[in-house]
Amino acid sequence: MNDLSKMSNFDPKQLPAYIDHTLLKADAGAQAVRKLCDEAMQYGFFSVCVNGVWVPFCQNALAGSGVRISVVCGFPLGANESAVKAYEAAKAAEAGANEIDMVLQVGRLMAGEHDAVRDDIRAVVDAVKGQAIVKVIFETGYLNEEQKIAACRLSGEAGAHYVKTSTGFGPGGATVEDIRLMRAHAASSIGVKASGGVRDLETAKAMVEAGATRLGTSSGVAIMNGANDRSAY
Q1: Cα–Cα distance, 94 to 116 (Å, whole number)
Q2: Looking at residue 14, what DSSP letter applies?
Q3: Which sequence positions are flagged as catalytic?
Q4: 3-state SS class at 129
């Protein structure tokens, strides 16, 4: 697993391989998604992160490039039935998605219904086992510290591969404090993705140094151009 947090010296040259280049706007069309894919290939980003309907398009656009495809699931509220999430994730993986970014059942987590939250995550993990990895979006802006810690534990127990801060559509976004908390309480085998408000090089650097092993952002090009401007890339 990529782990920039273990680098003794932050090196922006390695940043592209940790960026999920993201476009989740409802009004995104083929031209915008093609641009996203072209930028991902140009800069060497790890993946593009899109809504599920765009998986076949991205697979064709990215053919032979090595750029992976991440797809959101139960997005952005997390309030779908588990069976619906599992079906959505399975169809995305079948179409060519390599990674599934699912939103957990936020309301149930806040109500302390931990068995339901664990089962919801496990349903998605099981639906794509052997085909795609699963990142669990907490929507940290709604949660207190105890709930964030519980979400880390439940994600691990359900077999998830990453924990992730935010959808970018809810309150707040990634914070250094949340990344540190999640890194401290998620299993060592689980990655931590900072998403929501990661728009410049300094923020990206801070997230990595706090323990993020993946960055979800629609500003990957701006981040790398900022690194270029400072002769760091």
Answers
A1: 26
A2: G
A3: 101, 164, 193
A4: coil
pLDDT tens, 192-213? Answer: 999 999 999 999 999 999 999 9
Q: Residue 186: name the closest of 214, 228, 206, 222 by CA.
A: 214
Say whether 217 sits in a helix, a strand or coil.
Answer: strand
pLDDT in tens, 16-52: 999 999 999 999 999 999 999 999 999 999 999 999 9
Structural contact between residues 71 and 51, judged by C-beta atoms closer than 8 angstroms: yes
- Residue/partner pairs of 139-142 with CB below 8 Å, 24 or more apart: 139/78, 139/103, 139/104, 139/106, 139/166, 139/167, 139/170, 139/171, 140/165, 140/166, 140/172, 140/174, 140/175, 140/178, 141/166, 141/170, 141/171, 141/172, 141/173, 141/196, 142/106, 142/110, 142/170, 142/171
What are the DSSP E strand ranges found in the chain? 19-22, 47-50, 68-73, 99-103, 133-137, 162-164, 191-195, 214-217
Residues in the chain: 233
Q: Please state the pTM of the whole predicted model.
A: 0.93
